[in-house]
Structures are given as C-alpha cells and as structure tokens.
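Thread: "does anyone have the structure for this chain?"

Original post by V.I.:
We have the sequence but no experimental structure in hand. Need at least a predicted one for the grant figures.
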Amino acid sequence: MAGVLTGFAVIGVIILVGYIVGRTGILGEHARFVLSRIVFSVLSPCLLLTVLADANVHVLFSRLLIVSFLAAVACFALFAVVALALWRRPITQVVVGSLAAGYTNANNIGVPVAVYVLGNAAYSAPVVLLQLLVFTPVALGILDAKTRGSVSVRRILLQPVTNPLTLGSALGVIISVTGVHVPDPIFEPFRLIGEAAVPLVLISFGMSLSGARLLQPGSGRRDVLYAAALKVAGMPAIAWALGEFVFGLRGHDLFVVTALAALPSAQNVFNYAQRYERGEVIARDAVLITTLASVPALLLVSALLAS
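Reply from O.Q.:
Generated one for you, tokens below.
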C-alpha cells in the first residue's frame, strides 16, 4: 500500500506543477495545445511501442481485457437506456454521454497510473487498443449517420489506422508476438522519447485544471452527473464483480482491472463531441468531473484491493 500511495503522491505533485504553470501562464497561450499534440503524436506512441514490445503477450490478451470490455459495454448500455427511455435524449447526445460513462482515459491518466500505481505501463495499453479499434469506429459510425445522413465507411475505417497511438501500439504488439529482436541503436531512441510522455501528460493535465468552470446552467447537468457516477463508481464496481465472481481474478489482477475501470472519461470523448458538434458541454464537464473524482476512487480501490 505504501508503494501505491507513493505513486499517487508522485502523480499529484506533477499535476500540481502543471496547474501552477497554467495559472502563471509562463508557457504562453498555446502551450496546452502544443503539449497535447506532441504527447499524442510523438511521445505516447513511442511509449506504447516500447512498453508493448517488452510486454508478455499473456498480459496483453488476458481475462483482464475481457473484463474491461464487458464493464465498458455495461456502462454504455446503462447510460443509453436511461437517456433514451426516460429522458428522451437525441441519439447523438446519447452516444456522447455513453462514451463519457464508459470510455476510459487509458492513455493520458491510465499510463501514469499503470506506471506508478500498478507497476507496469503495459496494463493500460490493451485498453487503449480496445477503445481505438472497437469502440471508436462504432461511435463514429452512429454519429456520422445521425449528423451527416450517411456513413463514411472509409473515414471511419481509416480513423484507427491513422491514429499514432494505434500505430505505435500495433507495432509494439507485433514485436512482442513475433519475438523479433530490435537492435538497441534503433530501439533506444524510441524508449528515451517515450519516457518523456508520462510527466508531460500530467503537466498538461494540471494546466487544463486552471480556470475550469463546471456544470453551468443549461449544460445538461443530469446527464453529466449520471455519466460521471457510472464512470467512477459503477464501472469499477462492475469490473470488480465480473473479475471476482465470473472470471475468478484474484490479488493483483483483480486490483489492476478494477483500478483501470476507475480511471476517468477519456479526452477523446470531448474530441469526438467537438468534431460532430453534439454534446460538447456534457463531454467536457464529464471528462473534468471524472478526472477529479477518479483520484479518491482510485485511492479507495487501492486501499481495498492493493496487496
């Protein structure tokens, strides 16, 4: 437990540094944009490439991934049923709210948590792939159909293929599965670049907390709070129950799958909402609220399950 608390302390201090940087404005008005772009396009793909290349294949494709998939789908469904049947929300808003309820920030927050709390960055990588290769195409297909009147199959299929995170992850998985040895002079530069991802991600996140205003009137508070409750409370509870009683997970494996489920809603949810101009405020507020609420949620999960 002491190691877990140390991990959270490290994360908290780096986020605080980012918050101070954001409040003071010492990096200029475009700093967050530049940081997020370099992390998404360069640093994180290199990190996922090197981590997955070194990872055990059995860790990548295990019962943990199945539990993560089922817990996410359960939260998607729980939000969609209430939003459609009781609140009569439009389909596009239901899609965005459902993603906020079950689409995990397995990269920006998941990687630091996996490194400092779970002990291995490889734990979050399969969830990143699952979301980019399965959940994203389905969600974008529905949003395409409802906003444009037709579905651009080519654009949807190219979405994961052209995503730097997907490309880095896929290459790492190929190296791991095939056992190919990559010479150090070629591989080490990618490892060094990837090591910069975690601190910059946390600094960027700390900067995003500066000046944020939540739950403004008319912003869909009910949707936001319901999605947030499902994400930080419902999803880890479902993952724990599935892992414990259905898949027989024990010890560290049960801790890992529950902690991954307690991660906040992904920034991608807001990106998709922005792209289609549907549910943007709901996505933004849900991402921020779940990010703040995930800290006590993860601490609780760690206190109950960390060995």
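V.I.: this helps a lot. The chain has a mean pLDDT of 83.
O.Q.: and The radius of gyration is 19 Å.
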